[in-house]
Amino acid sequence: MNKSIGALEFISISRGMYVADAIVKKAEVEIIYFRTICPGKFLIIVSGNEGEVDTAIDFGVSIGGKTLFDNFKVHAVSPSIIEGIRGRYELVEKLDAVGIVETRMVCTGIKALDTVLKSADVKILRIYLAFSIGGKMVFAVTGSVSSEHGISGCKQLLSESERENIAIIPSPNRDILENLLKR
């Protein structure tokens, strides 16, 4: 069965932690991200089978109240997203072009990353989730220049209010690549 992920983002840290506890008691899901994020928010991301993630996130939305800022569910998610959220990335042997997408919210960014991975032959280089970057999400992927059309598609996928910036670097400088690959 394909894995799914879901997230709840709160403007109240204490309420977010309370709801996080409630959803993992309600459904068979695994916490893959549990953290305070900037600016003074809380984010939980869970994974599991589709029905359990639906149950967890729907329950979290129902009890989150006015402190719920954003949420999402992605079914049949790319396994590399789950690993990237955990800080583990696939070894990339050859770097060609690099695409970088910056979104104003984490939930929106993860949905965009899933779409890019499903629509283009790219691999994740790095995921930056909200902490110390003002609650934003940034992801960097690599593939051939022709594969970077998936990144360009983010301009149609994301509204102006959702995206901060999108950049494609056709032939990145060696120092840039080394810094992007630092773990």
Terminus-to-terminus distance: 30 Å
Please state the structural category: alpha+beta
The DSSP helix count reads 7
Helix percent reads: 25-40%
Short description:
This protein is α+β, with helices and mostly antiparallel strands. The chain has helices at residues 13-26, 50-64, 79-85, 106-119, 149-152, 154-157, 174-181, and strands spanning 4-10, 30-37, 41-48, 68-74, 97-103, 123-129, 137-143, 163-169.
Write up what this structure looks like:
The chain is 36% helix and 32% strand. It contains 7 helices and 8 strands, in the order E-H-E-E-H-E-H-E-H-E-E-H-H-E-H. It is globular, with a radius of gyration of 16 Å. The model has no long low-confidence stretch (mean pLDDT 88).
Keywords:
alpha+beta; four-stranded antiparallel sheet; globular; 8 strands; 183 residues
